[in-house]
Amino acid sequence: MIDKLLSKKIQSFILEHESEDPFQLSLKYDQVDGAPIRLIAEQIAGRQKAKIKLPEWYMTEGIIYPPKLSMEQCSSQSTAEYKASLVGGGVFTDLTGGTGVDTWELSKLFEKGNYVEQDGGLALLARSNLSALKRKNVEVHSATAERYLASISETVDCIYIDPARRDDNKNRVFLLEDCTPDIVQLLPQLRAKANQVLIKTSPMMDIDLAIKSLGPINEVHIVAVENDCKEVLYLISETQPDDPRLFMVNFKKSKMERLQSTITGVNTAHASFSVPMKYLYEPNAAIMKAGAFAYVSEKFSIPKLHKHTHLYTSEKLLTEFPGRTFKIEQLLPYSKKEIKRAIPKGKANITVRNFKDDVAAIRKKTGLKDGGELYLFGFTDVDQVQRIGLCTKA
Questions:
Q1: CA distance to 123, 185, 197, 352, per residue, from 70 (Å)
Q2: How do residues 38-85 score in pLDDT, each as one tens digit?
Q3: Nearest CA to 18 among 52, 45, 58?
Q4: What residues have CB less than 8 Å from 301, skipping those under 6 apart?
């Protein structure tokens, strides 16, 4: 079917209809050039997602996109590039190849690579796409991670592994021991057969528990894209430091926010506190995941509004703050009358931090609609007072 989908007639149809609704297309057509419209609609949906998520794939002729779930779960181009930048050497092995996005980026920085995937269909797809992307230094192996590891004796420079985080009943799991493959059980083999081991986990997994399960590690990287935490990476090398380094990364359209510390540095930092001043700051998702709230206060000499209110404030604008920055236009009591008077157009973007009501409750109480140029923050201040900050973007 790969060859069929690569035919000129089908590829022309995909390009001609790439901006249309795949579902609506599936209602209009039964097949194109002998291929079921379901498969072609899937290619169009994949291409639409790749335009943003994998722009180099989108611009490359001859790419066949995997099913919807695989496209949703695969790394984006920016996160794949980032993880590839953490390692290097002559030979790498991707033990959970999947769609091949991470293999593709890793292959740019290594002389030779091995793609390993237990799903034979995905392995065939990856072989075709890696060829289209002109990555000739990768061997494709259809096997489980466990079987492939047991079959090799040579040591490689890096092993990358991204275990599946669902059980046999498709339920999410939250411990490394429950993933497939079982990282904790495989760890002695991984350490023995690679100079570097790079492990990707879901942001839902607890970092402290993961570190306890893995034992000595070198680095933890928390990676977010447009303030949405996507993955947590654990790097293990031959020699481990006493205090693992911690990197909090957020990819934005115009730049990358990157904050570095150590696990101990985050755990021992001390925050300062203040009443709201002229500017308000909200940390990005990577910092939120790391729980590095006191560290941010200490690092940037910027006080928090309350121990449990993860917002910061300053009198002078801090332009390099890793997150969103606002100017406080007014401080209001949590009063429907006062809020409606301050927002006559009835629209605002609402966020709450350590506040008695959630966003839905505030909207119900005030009648405010979502959107506009005003930002309303509900928070508890250092004096234990529930306050509303009416802000604009700084």
A1: 13, 26, 23, 34
A2: 999 999 999 999 999 999 999 999 999 999 989 998 999 999 999 999
A3: 45
A4: 272
**What is the residue whose two structure tokens read 């790097």?**
235
Long-range contacts of 162-169 (CB under 8 A, 24+ apart): 162/96, 162/98, 162/102, 162/199, 162/200, 163/96, 163/199, 163/201, 164/96, 165/201, 165/202, 165/204, 165/205
Per the rule left: phi > 0, alpha: psi between -120 and 50, beta: everything else, 226 is: left
Question: What is the per-residue pLDDT across 241-250, written as a single tens digit (0 to 9) for each?
Answer: 889 999 999 9
- In the numeric block, the tokens 């047991």 are attached to 150
Q: Quote the DSSP letter at residue 76.
A: P
Distance, in Å, from the CA atom of 63 to the CA atom of 312, rounded to the nearest integer, reads 46
Q: How many angstroms separate the CA atoms of 148 and 146, rounded?
A: 6
Q: Are strands 309-314 and 279-283 parallel, antiparallel or unpaired?
A: antiparallel
> What whole-number distance in Å separates Cα of residue 26 and Cα of residue 107?
36
Q: If you ran DSSP here, which 8-state letter would residue 174 be given?
A: -
What is the pLDDT averaged over residues 237-259? 93
Q: What is the largest CA-CA distance in the chain?
A: 73
Q: Which amino acid is at 172?
A: R
- Backbone φ and ψ for 171, nearest 5 degrees, come out as -85, 145
Q: d(Cα 167, Cα 249) in Å, to the nearest integer? A: 29
* Burial class of 349 by CB neighbour count within 10 A (0 to 12, 13 to 18, 19+): middle
Q: CA 175, 179, 182, 187: dihedral to nearest 10 degrees?
A: -60
Question: CA triplet 309, 313, 314: central angle to 5 degrees?
Answer: 165
Q: Percent of the chain scored above 70 by pLDDT?
A: 99
Q: Is the pTM of this model over 0.90?
A: yes
Measured CA distances, 201 to 157, 164, 211, 247 (Å): 21, 9, 12, 15
Q: The tokens of 277 are what? A: 């001043």
Secondary structure of 303-372 in HEC code, one letter for each residue: CEEECCEEEEEECCCCCCCCEEEEEEEEEEECCHHHHHHHCCCCECEEEEECCCCCHHHHHHHHCCECCC
Characterize the bridge pairing of strands 323-333 and 89-94: unpaired
- pLDDT, residue 75, reads 95
Determine if residue 40 is left, alpha or beta; phi over 0 gives left, psi from -120 to 50 gives alpha, anything else beta: alpha
| Burial label, 305 (beta-carbon count in 10 A; 0-12, 13-18, 19+) | buried
